[in-house]
Design goal:
The protein has 354 residues and is α+β, with helices and mostly antiparallel strands. The structure holds guanosine-5'-triphosphate (GTP). Guanosine-5'-triphosphate binds next to strand 1, helix 9 and helix 10.
Length: 354
């Protein structure tokens, strides 16, 4: 099973390219200055673009491959024009700072407009990006709007501040990305640990946890949950006659259709084999019977489509509620199991309450 965080490759490329842009920039004395500045800064824009597109991949937004080329291709002619204008250092810095601010605002926006469970890491990264936007806006404004050419002190002070800011930005951004990735992996591991891989419903472990929680809530509120124990009828026959793959399809078919009969707070889980459980929070025995019958009727009247034509099957259900003052999962479950046994004994395709 592969667990991955989307966007990592783009971030790796982004940091590698942005970091390598320092080489042509540092080689200004050896290379043609125009070449080193244009090449270095186009690489820097490419690096920022990769980080932005990586962020879009991370949040599940679509990305076109050519998007990473937009900023470098925009920077190329503009920077070249600045060199025709005698280098125009302040103008060039203002232009680059604006572009950097824009390219950093984009991933911050991607993160802030999506509120999901990975929020702590996402907020951290978004604020680091916004701080970088702020710094670059100030830098662009300073160089862009200064009426006179900045004096030697100002030109020397800003590169120093830029170096310190770039260093801190990199460290905090990488830290934030690591937190974001570890949150994502943690969520994915939690999901995998609580899911049945075939049907993608909750598994027995998750059911136990959730039902225990419902029972302790019920102790507090006095509003008891109901439990349905649902078993596909003659599943062995279905497997033997149509093959295991069709049996698997029947399990998924059941999950899809049962899910359509439940409220958002109800929990459907695969207990094992062809047996499923449904936890219905705050539900009377009568209401549980209604839900069980709704599921049974839907399954009986919706045959599944297979390569060999439509195949029908039915389900039997044992339904019960937690009624004791200190309800215990085993006791409730045994009651539902006994009701299910009665349903099977009564000829299947029916619901028995207990
Ligand atoms: N295709 C498939 N079959 C499974 C899976 N898990 C368990 N089974 C099969 O489910 C069948 C269960 O058979 P039984 O326990 O005899 O139950 P049944 O045939 O449904 O009979 P009743 O419950 O009395 O109606 C067995 O043949 C198992 O091999 C699975 O994940 N996929």
């Amino acid at each position: 099973m592969k667990i991955s965080v989307h966007g990592i490759k783009h971030w790796a490329w982004g940091f590698a390219i942005a970091g390598s842009s320092g080489f042509p920039l540092a080689a200004r004395g050896m290379l043609n200055p125009a070449l080193s500045v244009v090449l270095g800064n186009c690489m820097l824009m490419l690096g920022y673009s990769f980080i932005w597109t990586g962020m879009r991949q991370f949040v599940g937004a679509p990305v076109r491959k050519w998007w990473v080329l937009v900023a470098p291709l925009l920077a190329l002619p503009v920077l070249s024009l600045f060199f025709l204008d005698d280098g125009n250092v302040p103008g060039r810095i203002a232009f680059l700072s604006t572009l950097i601010a824009g390219l950093s605002a984009l991933p911050a926006w991607e993160l802030l407009r999506r509120n999901d469970e990975r929020r702590l890491g996402q907020r951290w990264v978004a604020w680091i990006l916004l701080a970088h936007v702020g710094f670059n806006v100030c830098r662009a404004a300073y160089y862009g709007f200064s009426t006179s050419v900045p004096d030697a002190y100002a030109l020397a002070a800003f590169p120093t501040a830029t170096g310190v800011e770039a260093f801190l930005y990199m460290i905090f951004l990488v830290l934030g990305l690591i937190i974001m990735m570890s949150n994502t992996l943690q969520m994915e591991l939690n999901r995998l640990a609580s899911r049945d891989p075939l049907t993608d419903t909750y598994n027995r472990r998750a059911f136990h946890e959730m039902f225990e929680r419902e029972l302790s809530n019920a102790e507090r509120t006095g509003r008891q949950p109901a439990l349905l124990l649902i078993d596909i009828d003659n599943f062995k026959q279905l497997n033997d006659k149509h093959g295991h793959a069709v049996g698997d399809l029947a399990l998924k078919h059941f999950v899809t259709h049962a899910g359509l009969c439940l409220r958002s707070q109800d929990v459907l889980a695969r207990f094992g084999g062809e047996e499923f459980v449904v936890v219905l929070p705050e539900c009377s025995l009568h209401a549980a019977h209604v839900v069980a019958e709704r599921i049974r009727t839907r399954i009986a009247t919706h045959p599944m489509s297979t390569a060999n034509g439509d195949i029908s099957f039915t389900v039997s259900t044992g339904a019960t509620t937690a009624i004791a003052k200190a309800p215990d999962l085993k006791e409730v479950f045994d009651r539902a199991d006994a009701a299910l046994y009665q349903a099977k004994m009564s000829g299947r395709n029916c619901t028995v309450t207990a």
